[in-house]
UniProtKB/TrEMBL annotation:
<dbReference type="Pfam" id="PF04371">
    <property type="entry name" value="PAD_porph"/>
</dbReference>
<keyword id="KW-0378">Hydrolase</keyword>
<protein>
    <submittedName>
        <fullName>Agmatine deiminase</fullName>
    </submittedName>
</protein>
<dbReference type="GO" id="GO:0004668">
    <property type="term" value="F:protein-arginine deiminase activity"/>
</dbReference>
<dbReference type="GO" id="GO:0047632">
    <property type="term" value="F:agmatine deiminase activity"/>
</dbReference>
<dbReference type="GO" id="GO:0009446">
    <property type="term" value="P:putrescine biosynthetic process"/>
</dbReference>
<dbReference type="InterPro" id="IPR007466">
    <property type="entry name" value="Peptidyl-Arg-deiminase_porph"/>
</dbReference>
């Protein structure tokens, strides 16, 4: 991990911990609690084995028994919540001369699609409740609507994002693309914003968050979702996305190494609509990668690809079908913090 300069650290740098916002009967998970809580429990156990776990919840008495026990790595903070998509309501962390600085943005339910009045207050409330290390500052950008799932950092000055999300209506439509790019460069300490104009997943509510489509796995490597089935509705858009990825370059104008992730067989909700099964929505933690699987034949190949990308980390498969029933996956429900934050 870098110790000098100002930058947005990549997910693979050493972490102090991960935030999860816990589902309960007053969230959209109400009809799926029996399915989804075991997913959260598996993630919580894996995180606690390796680093701190910050749990935001409405009522800690509703947490499972193993999270009721004393654990120096476990931090629990109670407050009102709407739902549990921590990637998008949690703080982002930049490093300024080796010290972490929290950034608080406005979360408005992905362009006012869903209620988010309580989720928008989670980060300021955590700051007020001293959830973070003493002395870690928080800069308020609540006039700018933004979500953590919309960006990827390569730890070397490049930010990858999608125009479909950042230029969508009901987020920051009063700003031009160049104004948004300038804001991101300034606030995220980035030298280059890499825009993708193609790619989507049916059933995705986020307007094509980058973490469903393409992810940095090192400074020079991008893993991306590839569809080989010409009859699939995603084929053309993902083909164009790959072609655009091939044109992107880093700060030294060098192209990135591209590694294809398989495209999961279609997964459908009980009412028949397609839900967004993607292998790009993994979470990197200290010593491991929490990896979504969907009970389809591509799971095995996807795990092998991920192990090749992270040979020194344990790949932990997690059944994420319950998560995509609410149109997200592992990365969407979590937010990592680098050293010095928790």
């Amino acid at each position: 991990m870098k110790t000098e300069g100002n930058f947005l650290p990549a997910e693979w740098v050493e972490q102090s911990g991960v935030q999860l916002t816990w589902p309960d009967a007053e969230t959209d998970w109400v009809d799926l609690l029996d399915e989804v809580v075991p997913v959260y429990e598996q993630m919580a156990r894996a995180i606690l084995e390796r680093e701190k776990l910050l749990i935001v919840c409405r009522d800690k008495s509703n947490l499972p028994e193993f999270l009721q026990a004393e654990n120096e790595r476990l931090l629990i903070h109670e407050m009102p919540i709407n739902d549990t998509w921590a990637r998008d309501h949690a703080a982002l962390t930049i490093m300024e001369e080796g010290e972490p600085v929290l950034l608080n943005f406005r979360f408005n339910g992905w362009g006012m699609k869903f209620a988010a009045c309580d989720d928008n207050q989670i980060t300021p409330t955590l700051f007020e409740q001293a959830a973070f290390q003493p002395g870690v500052p928080m800069v308020d950008y609540s006039y700018f609507t933004f979500e953590g799932g919309a960006i990827e950092s390569n730890d070397a000055g490049c930010i990858l994002t999608t125009s479909e999300c950042l230029l969508s209506k009901n987020r920051n439509e009063h700003l031009s693309k160049s104004e948004i790019e300038g804001f991101l460069k300034n606030t995220l300490e980035a030298g280059k914003i890499l825009w993708l104009d193609h790619g989507f997943l049916e059933g995705d509510d986020t307007d094509s968050h980058i973490d469903t489509l393409a992810r940095f796995c090192s400074e020079d490597t991008i893993a991306y979702v590839k569809c080989d089935d010409e009859t699939d509705m995603h084929f053309e858009a993902l083909k164009k996305m790959k072609e655009q990825l091939q044109t992107l370059t880093d700060l030294e104008n060098k192209p990135f190494k591209l590694v294809a992730l398989p495209f999961a067989d279609a997964v459908f909700a009980e009412d028949g609509h397609r839900i967004p099964a993607t292998y790009a929505n993994f979470l990197i933690i200290n010593g491991a990668v929490l990896f979504p699987i969907y009970g389809v034949k591509q799971d095995k190949e996807a795990i092998e690809v991920m192990q090749s990308l992270f040979p020194d980390r344990e790949i932990i498969p997690i059944n994420s079908v319950p998560l995509i029933k609410q149109h997200g996956s592992i990365h969407c429900i979590s937010m990592q913090f680098p050293l010095g934050v928790l």
